[in-house]
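1st attempt posting a full record on here, be nice pls
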Amino acid sequence: MIALNSLLLTLDQPSLEDKYQKKTIEEMLFIISWIFIIECVVKVIVHGFYWGNKTYIKDPWNVLDFIIVIFSVLTMILVELIDE
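the predicted structure (as tokens):
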């Protein structure tokens, strides 16, 4: 998912003129973002967020994932506010 997300982000350019391609890339990025969000929520439920020895936020990779999820959610919110 990370590799596909990275590839789609490189293809998503402001100069992209084909509306079908642009919409497809946007939808795929939206779906991948939700996959990351669901993964984050499941890991937090299973491991706990902070308190404990092996909690979600104490793994450096999960910290990176959490930051990506936060930015994904903020991006989705901002896109919705701009589209209104």
